[in-house]
Amino acid sequence: xxxxxxxxxxxxxxxxxxxxxxxxxxxxxxxxxxxxxxxxxxxxxxxxxxxxxxxxxxxxxxxxxxxxxxxxxxxxxxxxxxxxxxxxxxxxxxxxxxxxxxx
Length: 103
Hints:
By secondary structure, the protein is of the alpha+beta class. Helices cover about 35% and strands about 15% of the residues. The strands form three sheets. It has a two-stranded antiparallel ribbon. It has a two-stranded antiparallel ribbon with strand order 3-4. The radius of gyration is 21 Å and the shape is elongated.
């Protein structure tokens, strides 16, 4: 029971902006509706601080966002910031994969 209470989405916690107690499961919605321009840290830990209302745009461009290589057959997962180096390092295997060889 103590583990459930500690992680229960129904428990109330104080909002960091207004200190009103809100159910944990509703906290993000509460903050997004009440404080859309509050400056927050990137949830992917890239070090950026951005207005909450711009989080969707930021996450699309964030260097810490994980991508799947678009070369057919590669299936390598990497962060956006590592995409260029992956393309350079895997160029020969990409060519082999596209032409029917193995990776």
